[in-house]
Amino acid sequence: MTQLHPVIAEVTARIIERSKDLRAQFMERADRYKADEPRRKKLSCANYAHVVAASSPDEKLQQALDAVPNIGIVTSYNDMLSAHQPYHDYPEKLRVMARGYGATTQVAGGVPAMCDGVTQGRPGMELSLFSRDVIAMSTAVSLSHDAFDAALMLGICDKIVPGLVMGALSFAHLPVIFVPSGPMGSGLPNPEKAKVRTQYALGQVGRDALLAAEMASYHSAGTCTFYGTANSNQMLMEMMGLHVPGAAFVHPGTPLREALTQAAVMRAARSAENSTTPSRMADVIDARAIVNGVIGLMATGGSTNHALHLPAMARAAGVILTWEDMDKISSVVPLLARVYPNGSADVNHFHAAGGMGFVIKELLGAGLMHADVQTIWGQGMADYAKEPIFQDGQLVWRDAPETSLDENILRPVSNPFSPEGGLREIKGNLGKSVAKVSAVKLEHQIVEAPCVVFDDQDDFLAAFKAKQLPEGDFICVVRFQGPKANGMPELHSLTPSLSSILDAGRKVALVSDGRMSGASGKVPAVIHLTPEAVDGGPIAKLRNGDVLRVDCVAGTIDFLGDAAEFSQRTNADRPKEADGMGRELFAHMRRAVGPADEGGAVFW
Question: Which residues of 466-494 are buried (b: 16+ CB within 10 A; e: fewer)?
Answer without folding.
Answer: eeebbeeebbbbbbbbbbbbbbbbbbbbb
